[in-house]
């Protein structure tokens, strides 16, 4: 595949290496808006910044170039992007986390939330830890995890950053140098705690998942998720 890398930062550089190892070609790599012809690529992979992702993605839809995006912090525009994708007959996969491990963890979280539904002695709390360069908080992964708990557990209707209050899942976001991404969910009762945790040791899993998603999306139209790609859940 001829790949456009929209965003050539920490993730873009690892995705480039993984894509080359898997026999693909990088025809565009950019860290700014415009200045390239997206139609030179078979597919685009966007790991940019919250303020750029929507433009990058919609530009791909408008030129019928399938696009995989892992950029977080732009999801207030997600529904608008889906509408444009549909109108332009584009192809799109967004995931807050492309690693196989986290996608298994998503399933575990959802199952646990269902088990805990109605057990009023337990309250849930989430912690996410990332490197100090991260622009958004909470992480996109933490938001996905919280949304899944809200869907399965009647005690919760929303999440709140660094704040515990009735009906809201508190998400504590910590920034520590060099941490690639850690997510933990704890259910606490007066007598015990149940905790599940995912720890990324590096960024390789995110990058491999994004390239696998791009390989899977090529030749399709429509909107998909990592559940479709990995065939889990
Ligand atoms: N979904 C997932 O599995 C993962 C998602 N991420 C997310 O991916 C994004 C990128 O993460 P990193 O590579 O660590 O950040 P980074 O800051 O190292 O790289 C982002 C790059 O985008 C560039 N950029 C700025 N404006 C741009 C534009 N208009 N078009 C294209 N590029 C532009 C920046 O100059 C920078 O080089 C973040 O939103 C992060 O949360 C990160 C890891 C995994
Ligand atoms: O910015 C990061 O680094 C990461 N961002 C994603 C997120 O916001 O969930 C995924 C991963 O945790 C790393």
From TrEMBL:
Family (UniProt): Belongs to the DapB family.
Key words of the record: Amino-acid biosynthesis, Cytoplasm, Diaminopimelate biosynthesis, Lysine biosynthesis, NAD, NADP, Oxidoreductase
A Pfam short name: DapB_N
Pathway info: Amino-acid biosynthesis; L-lysine biosynthesis via DAP pathway; (S)-tetrahydrodipicolinate from L-aspartate: step 4/4
Protein name in UniProt: 4-hydroxy-tetrahydrodipicolinate reductase
Binding site for NAD(+): 70-72, 95-98
Molecular function (Gene Ontology), one example: NADP binding
Biological role stated in the UniProt entry: Catalyzes the conversion of 4-hydroxy-tetrahydrodipicolinate (HTPA) to tetrahydrodipicolinate.
SUPFAM superfamilies with a match to the protein in the record: Glyceraldehyde-3-phosphate dehydrogenase-like, C-terminal domain, NAD(P)-binding Rossmann-fold domains
Organism: Hanstruepera neustonica
Gene3D superfamilies cross-referenced by the UniProt entry: Dihydrodipicolinate Reductase, domain 2 (3.30.360.10), NAD(P)-binding Rossmann-like Domain (3.40.50.720)
Reaction(s) this enzyme catalyzes, per UniProt: (S)-2,3,4,5-tetrahydrodipicolinate + NADP(+) + H2O = (2S,4S)-4-hydroxy-2,3,4,5-tetrahydrodipicolinate + NADPH + H(+); (S)-2,3,4,5-tetrahydrodipicolinate + NAD(+) + H2O = (2S,4S)-4-hydroxy-2,3,4,5-tetrahydrodipicolinate + NADH + H(+)
GO biological process: diaminopimelate biosynthetic process; lysine biosynthetic process via diaminopimelate
PANTHER family (alphabetical): 4-HYDROXY-TETRAHYDRODIPICOLINATE REDUCTASE 1, CHLOROPLASTIC-RELATED (PTHR20836:SF0), DIHYDRODIPICOLINATE REDUCTASE (PTHR20836)
